[in-house]
Amino acid sequence: MKLRVVSSKKEIDGLNRNEQLIHLAFRAANTDIFKLLQNCPRIRAVQVPSSYRKTLSRASEMFLVMQGVELIEGDVWGHRKDIDEYYCIDEMVLERIDALQSSGENANDIARTISRDTKLSPALVKYLIKQRS
């Protein structure tokens, strides 16, 4: 699974229309969120760092909810945009989530375990759990 990392407002215009998971590595304004949703109609989730999440306007949050897009708080640790514009979530992580789910663990425990092992944010892991159910 791939998470597209967008590090500036200028990159929004060049995004693929089929992007589904996006990480915004800049403070997005209302116009940026609106343009993002216009350019990527299939988007299902937007991840923003926790420090930027606190400055995101209520209007942007409501617009994302109205469009059916989930807002996820978290970061992409160790990703270098100069090497690849996508942050790849390894298939082994998804298989581990499935294994923990089948063993009867709840979503919070799975998120805590996977987050500790992979440095993915707990909110992103919970999103992945929900998508795999």
Q: What report would you give on this structure?
A:
- The protein has 133 residues and is an alpha/beta fold.
- The chain has two domains: 1-88, Rossmann fold (3-Layer(aba) Sandwich); 90-133.
- Helices cover 44% and strands 15% of the residues.
- A five-stranded mixed beta sheet has the order 4-3-2-1-5, sandwiched between helices.
- Helix 4 runs antiparallel to helix 5 (107-118).
- The radius of gyration is 15 Å and the shape is globular.
- The model has no long low-confidence stretch (mean pLDDT 91).
What's the assembly state of these chains? single chain
| Averaged pLDDT | 91
CATH topology heading of the largest domain: Rossmann fold
- % residues in beta strands: 15-25%
Please give the number of β-strands. 5
When the domains are counted, the total is 2
General form? globular
Succession of helices and strands: EEHEHHEEHHH
CATH class of the largest domain: Alpha Beta
Structural class comes to: alpha/beta
- Regions with little confidence, pLDDT below 50 for 5+ residues: none
CATH architecture of the largest domain: 3-Layer(aba) Sandwich
Strand order of the largest sheet: 4-3-2-1-5
